[in-house]
């Protein structure tokens, strides 16, 4: 049974103490400060210009020593000097050898080191033991209440959160099972009566990592103190870039041609191509200037009456859905899974049990008698067939029907009731996401209708005498 709560060592330090901590640990600042933006104190801390700054003038805005960068390599280096940390990572097997697994466990371990409820000395404190105390608790959707989650019905975020919570629970149980035989873990983390670690703690370190991890060139996914304090803006509004210098340090520099006035915010991009759903999911906000959902992943199911349904689900190597995206003047879609949905045995698909060299039976997919190593290759094989237009028509018709269902569900949630327990931020974000996704879906429905019409009537003029691209929708 999972107890609800918080690890008592999660002691917060005021942001006013951040710069002294950073400078003491070798971080250099050039004309910037960390703190709340004047007039926007409710948004938390960010990077602000202390004076007018111009690209190409002076050193980098921030230089973060390589040993302060929280990466997979950095965690492994720390483990060489900390036997308890090494014991933790070794117990986790492959999960402890991934950037995500190593960093999340490292964060949890650092919180334990400074926990006042752990009487004995634990681990080897390092600068990052104090760093996590400056990080705010993020109100990501994984921390929304059930009532707030209900606001997301019909959006792609609802299924993403459900999948994430299930994934987090599996990870939490994996970590607990793997470390249960370590004496200090059993005593301080997992004891039935006095253990301090809860599922909430695992969600918290996930939120820290998910909302602040940056993909640094030459380093990979990591957390970089100071740089990860920068807020997001996209396009021309992005003020600065982050990269690794020749000494392996993390640096923040202004973009070419950029000038920042005193007391203005210095922003980075978290990814200009990320859609509204992913922005809320990972960072807990939508950019004010965002006028499109940009991209959506919509789930697909194989019909229950498909005789090969169960077998298809076993052999599929594709994500069960399709990616819908905004191309500016129109929408587009991508999916490897749809081709598995829309073909059957009479088309040439076969699924058989084959015996491996060790005598075991393994289910394999076949296309016209030849083994299909990866179902992602199916589209390329279908394109070579004389019935390619027929397969396309089936696929597009299925996608259009799925889009229509998503639209109908969203319309049912256009004016949900707001209960007293629903907080302001989840209410606003859910409403904005519904608007953006509904607009993209309605555009996509019309574009898919055009594709269906073109595939049915491939000649320039269809049976009604209208050009498919000019007919009124």
Automatic annotation (TrEMBL):
InterPro entries: SET_dom, SET_dom_sf, SETD3_SETD6_MTase
A single Gene Ontology CC term: nucleus
Domain SET: 30-271
Highest taxon of the lineage: Eukaryota
GO terms, molecular function: protein-lysine N-methyltransferase activity
CDD domains: SET_LSMT (cd10527)
PANTHER family from the UniProt entry: SET DOMAIN-CONTAINING PROTEIN 8, UNCHARACTERIZED PUTATIVE METHYLTRANSFERASE
Protein name: SET domain-containing protein
Organism, as annotated: Lophium mytilinum
């Amino acid at each position: 049974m999972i107890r609800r709560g918080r690890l008592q060592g999660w002691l917060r330090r005021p942001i006013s103490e951040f710069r002294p901590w950073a400078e003491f640990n070798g971080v250099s600042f050039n004309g910037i400060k960390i703190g709340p933006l004047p007039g926007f104190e409710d948004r938390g801390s960010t990077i602000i210009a202390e004076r007018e700054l111009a690209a190409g003038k002076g050193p980098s805005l921030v230089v973060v020593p390589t040993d302060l960068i929280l990466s997979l390599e950095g965690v492994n280096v720390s483990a060489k000097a900390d036997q308890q940390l090494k014991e933790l990572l070794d117990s986790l097997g492959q999960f402890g050898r991934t950037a995500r697994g190593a960093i999340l466990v490292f964060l949890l371990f650092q919180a334990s080191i400074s926990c006042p409820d752990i009487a004995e000395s634990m681990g080897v404190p390092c600068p990052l033991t104090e760093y996590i105390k400056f990080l705010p608790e993020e109100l990501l959707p994984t921390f929304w209440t059930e009532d707030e989650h209900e606001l997301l019905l019909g959006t792609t975020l609802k299924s993403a959160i459900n999948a994430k919570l299930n994934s987090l629970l599996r990870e939490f149980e994996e970590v607990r099972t793997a470390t249960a035989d370590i004496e200090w873990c059993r005593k301080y983390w997992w004891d039935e009566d006095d253990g301090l670690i809860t599922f909430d703690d695992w969600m918290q370190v996930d939120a820290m990592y998910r909302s602040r991890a940056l993909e640094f060139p030459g380093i990979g996914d990591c957390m970089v103190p100071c740089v990860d304090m920068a807020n997001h803006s996209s396009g021309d509004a992005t003020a600065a870039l982050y990269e690794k210098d020749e000494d392996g340090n993390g640096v923040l520099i202004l973009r070419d041609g950029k000038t920042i006035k005193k007391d203005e915010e210095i922003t980075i991009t978290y990814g200009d191509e990320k859609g509204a759903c992913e922005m809320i999911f990972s960072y807990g906000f939508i950019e004010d200037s965002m006028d499109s959902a940009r991209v959506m992943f919509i789930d697909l199911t194989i019909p229950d009456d498909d005789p090969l349904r169960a077998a298809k689900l076993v052999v599929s190597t594709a994500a069960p859905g399709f990616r819908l995206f905004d191309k500016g003047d129109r929408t587009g879609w991508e999916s490897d899974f749809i081709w598995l949905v829309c073909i059957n045995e009479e088309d040439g698909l076969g699924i058989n049990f084959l015996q491996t060299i060790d005598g075991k039976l393994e289910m394999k997919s076949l296309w016209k008698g030849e083994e299909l190593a990866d179902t992602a290759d199916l589209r390329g094989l279908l394109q070579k067939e004389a019935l390619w237009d027929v397969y396309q028509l089936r696929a597009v018709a299925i996608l259009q029907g799925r889009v229509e269902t998503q639209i109908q569900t969203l319309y049912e949630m256009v004016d949900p009731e707001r209960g007293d327990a629903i907080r302001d931020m989840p209410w606003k974000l859910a409403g904005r996401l519904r608007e953006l996704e509904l607009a993209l879906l309605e555009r996509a429905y019309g574009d898919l209708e055009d594709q269906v019409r073109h595939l049915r009537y491939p000649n320039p003029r269809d049976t009604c005498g209208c050009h498919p691209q000019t007919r009124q929708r």
